[in-house]
Design brief:
Helix content of chain B: 40-55%
Order of helices and strands of chain A: HHHEHEHHHEHEHHHHEHEHHHEHEEEH
Oligomer: heterodimer
Helix content of chain A: 40-55%
Number of strands of chain A: 10
Radius of gyration of chain B: 20 Å
Number of strands of chain B: 8
Order of helices and strands of chain B: HHEHEHEHHEHHHHEHEHHHEHHEH
Shape of chain B: globular
Structural class of chain A: alpha/beta
Largest sheet of chain B: 4 strands, parallel
Strand content of chain A: 5-15%
Structural class of chain B: alpha/beta
Largest interface: A-B, 61 and 59 residues
Strand content of chain B: 5-15%
């Protein structure tokens, strides 16, 4: 590493939990494992994406997933994505497209051109895959287009594209009336994946093993929910900064004992911290919700900056990719593929029924309200990443709609007759702007000025609320 | 005796300038118009319900203001412009909108349209993102949901007979559009590219029967020997998403070239594929909108296992049209933040260059302010191929 690179190397974010601190080595080991598998040809390797509910199928057939968004995130966190982004631009891709995908495409084209890893590739680089499994679902065009674009540089690597739709919310209609044909289609798509993988691996699916892995995932889902619910404690024992680490076993290790054991340990650690009264911050003054947007992976230390002002993050909507299965109103099914398909629909439509009960609400808004109330939230922080429409379009509207239908903060003011009266105002919010991995979009000074101003607003409201009691 | 071409063109231009004028007039008489932005919306279904589909246009000259208060600036600029105009009441006669699963900009802002516009009718059509038997069966079921939703809104039963009638009317419309396209095969073309886009745009704002009449009048007036004053400059085909930005086409023409063909969403991509009139109507519509619309949003398996053959399958229509219309070059016009097209830019360029078709790639912000910059690049490209 050159002196300049050493000087630019980002300093590590301080974590509140030991579990979150263990994630870096875990990811490093995982990447090393894929590189070793490539070298030894011990497993088939598949480029793929998180939150496709297909991990158990991959693992039941001993296919090792390579999470390409994760590798781009690592490049971003190490502040080493720019050279891959520039390479993608030189190939003709616009910088306005998903920068995860651009980073991956730039990296892949470079690796294919050299016939070996690009120089000083982060954590040894990303292994060449045997296959690519994509799914745009109904939320992410880049996921549907990325691997197709990569085939220009790796034409011999086959793609299986899974369509995984779910009904969108419509206050006037019951989504469950559509579930039967959605479920049938998802099952067919997943069975198509099984056939594709059987062909690629030369193995037959062992459905007993698949059932065991589905059960393990379901057990882990409920455990994660229960673990994260512990963060309701005051002070909260773990914040969003840590959750951006603990998303790794949740999103990359599902269907493995590693994920389950990780959350057993995290739960234990949180219970101990709660018992001792240890919070994410020593003196918790403001409890914030990360209300949307992927983080700027190169600027996770901004969470520490919030912490330094007495602000904690007991909850986030980002990467909370599970919901308690026992609260989902989905049919029971013995067939593991059918179970996965019901879980898929149950997860994406989880907040629909609750939203229907509150006039003007919407599942995404209802989820915000649920978290505001259950986690005693004082303010909302969101992040608008310029290159990602998937998670970042609709955030402004959500805040607008929330303000229209929900005003939880009592504030003292003088009425027309000169008497004090209590009004209820909406929760203050802050929208940060930059990107997931493109550091050229980020200004630390501007971001921190915005945070400072937001904290002042929170403090003013805190004083008002104290006065109104 | 047919109306002189100049008269028809002037009339179309007036209707284009007063876009939605006729729709407003009919709405005032009780007609219900359902707005749409993307070619994935099955117009035949809307028409069979007794409502009229109406293509929402953006406006490069209108700064996006109200729209920015609700919709992020990272959304496709064309789509933001459409939303901004809706919010400002430009299309306040519309009774509803239908949004399909096309791109992220549409899907992710569906709720914003639904809640902010608060129209009597809003519906989302979940078009599959892959092809194949299971996708087709799913899409048929989804179209039945769409049919039921329209029936609930209008109180009208959408029978197979009504759908079949509607399918025939739209097929006729598309055949006439194709005939108008053919007018540009001559040297020089018998209709200017800018005039053709106006004709198609106006046609998409009218009930299909009126659109058919208009297309007939255009065909009658323009058929025959060279009737345009087009210069004999390079012949250009435009490839890309929805292109209703007349400034761009005029700009190309003002630079001395002729726009003779396209593969855009409001052009050939939408107007060329027909619906099978023999199959059961819902099945036939599912087949047209899933299998025949060549949108980059829909993933088609790379069965050949090579880039070249896959590219032939995906982009062969561009080459074929370029040949049919004797195009000298292609302008690949893509909006900033357009993921479906954006990720295909290198592949499209590589493919066309491999066929010895010169390509100019333009990324645009859908704003009249960017025209100057585009002009310089277009001029340079025309000089190169001229």
């Amino acid at each position: 590493m050159s002196d300049e690179q050493k000087a630019n190397k980002p300093k590590k974010r301080m974590t509140a939990t030991k579990a979150a601190a263990s994630i870096g080595p875990m990811v490093k080991e995982f990447i090393a494992g894929t590189l070793k598998a490539r070298e030894e040809r011990s497993h088939k390797l598949a480029y793929t994406f998180i939150v496709c509910h297909h991990e158990e199928i991959l693992r039941a057939l001993d296919v090792l997933p390579i999470w390409t968004e994760n590798f781009a995130g690592i490049c971003g966190a190490k502040r080493d994505a720019e050279r891959f982004l520039q390479r993608a631009e030189s190939l003709g891709f616009s910088r306005s497209l998903c920068t995860y995908a651009l980073c991956g495409l730039g990296f892949d084209q470079w690796r294919e051109e050299l016939g070996e890893m690009p120089p000083e590739a982060p954590w040894g680089g990303q292994a060449r895959p045997d296959m690519m499994i994509s799914s745009g679902q109904i939320l992410c065009d880049p996921r549907a287009k990325w691997y197709q674009a990569a085939q220009q540089y790796m034409p011999d690597v086959p793609i299986y594209n899974i369509d995984l739709p779910h009904p969108l919310y419509d206050p006037k209609n019951d989504h469950k009336e559509q579930w039967a044909y959605y479920h049938k289609y998802i099952v067919e798509q997943l069975r198509g994946l099984v056939s594709f993988l059987e062909e690629q691996t030369g193995k037959k699916m062992d459905y007993d093993r698949l059932s065991e892995l589905v059960e393990l995932t379901e057990k882990t889902w409920n455990l994660i929910h229960e673990t994260y619910e512990l963060r309701k404690a005051v002070p909260t024992p773990m914040g969003t900064g840590d959750a951006m680490n603990t998303m790794v076993p949740m999103c990359f290790n599902m269907g493995t004992q590693v994920a389950y054991d990780f959350f057993v340990n995290l739960k234990k650690e949180l219970e101990e911290k709660i018992q001792k009264g240890e919070g994410e911050v020593a003196e918790e003054k403001y409890r914030l919700m990360w209300g949307g947007g992927l983080p700027a992976w190169f600027a996770l230390k901004d969470f520490n900056y919030f912490n330094s002002k007495g602000a904690s993050f007991p909850v986030e909507t980002t990467y909370r990719m599970v919901a308690p299965l026992y609260e989902m109103d989905i049919p029971d099914a013995k067939d593991p593929i059918e179970r996965i398909a019901w879980r898929w629909l149950g997860y994406w439509n989880f907040w629909f029924d609750r939203a229907r009960k509150r006039p003007g609400s919407h599942p995404d808004v209802e989820r915000l309200i649920n978290h505001i109330e259950n986690y005693k939230i004082d303010g909302i922080v969101m992040h608008e990443a310029f290159s990602c429409r998937t998670w970042h379009v609709g955030l402004i509207w959500q805040l607008n709609q929330l303000a229209k239908i929900y005003k939880p903060i009592p504030v003292l003011s003088l009425g027309q007759n000169g008497k004090q009266q209590t009004k209820h105002c909406e929760l203050p919010s802050l929208i940060l702007e930059s990107d997931i991995i493109d550091i050229t979009s980020y200004s630390e000074a501007d971001t921190r000025n915005k945070i400072d101003a937001f904290i002042e607003t929170l403090e003013s409201l805190r004083q008002n609320r104290a006065d109104s009691k | 005796m047919p109306e002189p071409q100049s008269d028809v063109v002037s009339r179309v231009d007036a209707m284009y300038q007063d876009y939605a004028g006729r729709a407003k007039e009919l709405a005032g008489q009780g007609a219900r118009f359902i707005g749409y932005v993307c070619s994935f919306v099955p117009l035949e279904m809307i028409a069979a319900s007794g409502c009229f589909p109406f293509r929402i246009r953006g406006d490069v000259h209108e700064p996006i203001t109200k729209g920015d208060t609700l919709l992020e600036t990272i959304v496709c600029p064309f789509y933001r412009s459409c939303f901004d105009l809706m919010l400002k009441g430009k299309y306040d006669f519309a009774s509803g909108v239908v949004i399909p699963h096309a791109c992220d900009s549409m899907v992710r802002s569906y709720d914003v349209w639904n809640y902010a516009l608060n129209l009597p009718y809003t519906h989302f059509v979940n078009v599959p993102s892959v092809c194949g038997d299971s996708a087709l069966r799913f899409f048929e079921a989804e179209l039945i949901s769409f049919k039921q939703s329209l029936e609930k809104y209008t109180g009208v039963s959408i029978t197979d007979e009504k759908l079949a009638h509607s399918i025939r009317a739209y097929n006729l419309n598309r055949k006439k559009a194709r005939d108008i396209y053919a007018l540009r095969k001559t040297h020089p073309p018998a209709i200017l590219g800018s005039d053709l886009v106006k004709v198609l745009s106006v046609g998409a704002s009218l009930p299909v029967e009126e659109s058919n009449e208009l297309f007939d009048q255009v065909l009658q007036a323009c058929s025959g020997a060279n009737k345009t004053d087009a210069q004999s400059g390079p012949r250009i085909l435009i490839d890309g998403p929805c292109l209703d930005n007349m400034d761009l086409i005029k700009l190309i023409e003002d630079c001395g070239a002729q726009v003779v063909g396209d593969t855009t969403c409001n052009g050939a991509r939408d107007h060329f594929p027909l619906t099978d009139e023999i199959r059961p109507p819902v099945q036939a519509l599912a087949d047209r909108y899933l299998n025949k619309l060549n949108c980059p949003k829909t993933y088609r398996d790379n069965q050949a296992g090579t880039f070249e053959k896959d590219a032939d399958n995906r982009f062969g229509d561009i080459e074929s049209y370029a040949k049919d219309y004797s195009a000298d070059g292609v302008i690949l016009y893509v909006y900033k933040y357009c993921d479906p097209f954006g990720f295909e830019v290198p592949a499209r360029k590589t493919y066309l260059e491999s066929k010895n078709i010169p390509v100019l790639y333009l990324e645009d912000l859908y704003s009249s302010g960017a025209t100057g910059q585009l002009k310089t690049r277009i001029q340079a490209f025309l000089e190169m191929i001229g």
